[in-house]
Amino acid sequence: MLSNNSANSNILFTLDQIKAIHSKVKSGVDFPDFIQNLKSLGITQYETFVTDGHTDYYGLNGYKISSPGLYKLLTVCTAANAGQFITRLKAHQQGKTDFQTFCMDSAKYGVEKWMVSIDKMTCTYYDKNANEILKEIIPTTKTKP
User: Fold this and answer.
1) What is the CATH number of the domain that holds 70?
2) Which phi-psi region, left, alpha or beta, contains residue 75 (left: φ > 0; alpha: ψ -120 to 50)?
3) Helix, strand or coil for residue 55?
């Protein structure tokens, strides 16, 4: 919720608000609802880094906050394997893996990070050289597993 308090006028969202939304996510099936809830906070995009699971969230006027890492450091493979990554991504989107497993799969198949543009409703996955591995359109409703 946006604050009307002038002392907090440049804070659009907090990590606590994001954590509350994230706590409702059980698997990749919940991703469309997650995105809509982030959008309601004023988040315009975010980047998640596979190495430790931290995320940088961006809002209007250059506002940015970062979450802490979520797990022990992972090594991202230098040679991306888009085909294997897409197979594991589909499994995650169907609710067959949890977030940490998906991150381990991403590292194994050369994905360094993903960037979600909430305005464009896209999620783009990148390798260590900032090459685009895959760009997806984010569905606006849940898909059945």
Assistant:
1) 3.30.1810.10
2) beta
3) strand
pLDDT digits (tens, 9 = 90+) for 21-78: 988 877 667 788 889 899 999 999 999 999 999 999 999 889 999 999 999 999 999 9
In a domain, residue 142? The reply is: no
Contact 78, 128 (CB under 8 A): yes
Which structure tokens are listed for 68? 């802490």
Q: List, in sequence order, the alpha helices (H) in the chain.
A: 15-22, 31-41, 82-93, 99-108
What do you get for the CA distance between the two ends of the chain, in Å?
Answer: 31
Q: pTM to 2 decimals?
A: 0.83
Average pLDDT over all residues of the chain: 87
With DSSP H G I counted as helix, E B as strand and the rest as coil, what are the percentages for the chain, rounded to 5? 35, 20, 45
d(CA 28, CA 101): 11
Q: Please state the length of the chain.
A: 145
Domain hosting 64: range is: 12-137
Rg (C-alpha) for the chain, rounded Å, is 15
